[in-house]
Predict the 3D structure of the following.
Amino acid sequence: MSPTAHRVVILVFDGVTLLDVAGPAEVFAEANRFGADYQVVLVSPTGADVTSSIGVRIAVAGAASESAPDTFLVAGADLYPRNAVGGDLVEAALTLAERADRTASICTGAFVLGAAGLLDGKRATTHWKVTHELAARYRSSSVVPDAIYVQDGTTYTSAGVTAGIDLALALVEEDHGPYLTREVARSLVVYLQRSGGQSQFSAPLQEPPPRSPAVRRIADLVTADPAGDHSVGELAKRLNLSSRHLTRLFREEMSTTPARYVEMIRFDMAKALLDQGHTATQVASLAGFPSYESMRRVFVKKMAISPAAYQRRFRTAQRTDSA
C-alpha cells in the first residue's frame, strides 16, 4: 500500500448481504482507475471467512482487531433487526470505529452501529422497511426514514442495498471531488446523485389495516369509485356518522385526516396504474385526481419525483431502442 493510499475496511459476517459488500467495494475499485488510491479490505469479527446470504463464500483478510481503517463500513443482512446483534460483531464495530476517520453502514448495518452505541445522538437511516424498528430500538438516534443516505459528522448511514453505491460515491466525492466521482458514476452506469428519497421504492399501503370497520369501509368506497365525491361530509353521510366523529376516528386510529387518507389511496392506485403502462394523463383520471397537475403535486410531495419520472424508473427493467 502506498503512503497516500486510503484504507477502506468492510466488516462482514455470516449471512451478510453480498450486494452490500460488492456494491461499495466496486465503487472504490473503479475510482482507482481514475486516479484514486483506495485499498479495500474485508474483515470479520474473528478473522474467519464468512458465507453470504446467498451462500457465496467470502474470503477475509483477517480479524477486525488486526485492521486500522481510514474508512470503516459495516454491511447489512436480513438477520437484522429480526435478531439481536451479537457481542462479537458489536465489539468488532467498536474497535474499527475507534480507529477510523469515518464510519458508515450499508442498509441494516445501521443496527450494528446502533447496538455499538455509535448512533447515539446522531441522525441515521436504514432500509425503508425497518426504519421504524431502528427508531424504536435506538431512541437516542434521530431516524430519517426517506433518505438515501445520511451524514452526521463523520458517521454515515445508508438505505437498502444499492443505496450503498450512492453512499460510496458520496465518500469518493468527499475525497476526490465531483469530476472524478462523475467519471466513476458514468463508468458504472449509475446516477451520481439520485433524485427523490427511498419512499419511491417502497410498497404501497404499508401501514397496518384500520381497526375500525368504518375506516376500512372508506378504502373500499374510494377504490370502487376513485373519482367520486369523497369529501368528509359525503363519506360521513354514507357511513351514517357525523363529520366530527369520522374525523376523530381518523385522527385517533390513522394519525391523519379523511382527505389525506383518500389521497393516499388514489396515490397508490396511480402508482399501480403507471406500473401497468397507462399514460400519466390516463392515470390521473383513473385514479380520481382532478387533473394531471394535482397528481403531479402529490407525487412530488410524497416521492420528490414526477409521475413520468417514476414510470420511467419502475415500469420495466428492459430498455427499448427509442428509450
Summary: The chain is about 45% helix and 10% strand. Residues 165 and 190 are 9 Å apart (CA to CA). The mean pLDDT is 87.
